[in-house]
Design a protein that fits this description.
This protein has 94 residues and is an all-alpha fold. The protein is 55% helix and 0% strand.
Length: 94
């Protein structure tokens, strides 16, 4: 017996509500932006560094930013086109 579209939609809505109530974490895009900036700085030698990354504070580890370093290094190796750097930066592991 196939499920109706309304039944599937209702199940998805219910799942989303339960998910919102049970998940105890949140998405912080600022941390992603900062990781991209650090990776850019590692490859290109310049970029904005917020206070959390500076050696005198060192609240964040550069390990998360290292995920993006190969993409930026590839972009630099093939001609450093800004559009390519942006597209590669949008590729991330979720």
């Amino acid at each position: 017996m196939p499920l109706s579209a309304a039944h599937v939609f209702g199940c998805l809505v219910l799942y989303r509500i339960v998910n919102c109530l049970l998940v105890r974490t949140y998405f912080q895009p600022d941390a992603e932006w900062q990781g991209l900036e650090i990776a850019h700085r590692l490859v290109y030698g310049y970029g904005y560094t917020t206070w959390e990354w500076r050696p005198d504070n060192a609240l964040r580890s550069p390990l998360g930013a290292l995920v993006f370093v190969p993409a930026f290094a590839l972009a630099k190796a093939v001609g450093d086109r800004p559009a390519l750097v942006v597209r590669l930066a949008l590729l991330r592991i979720d």
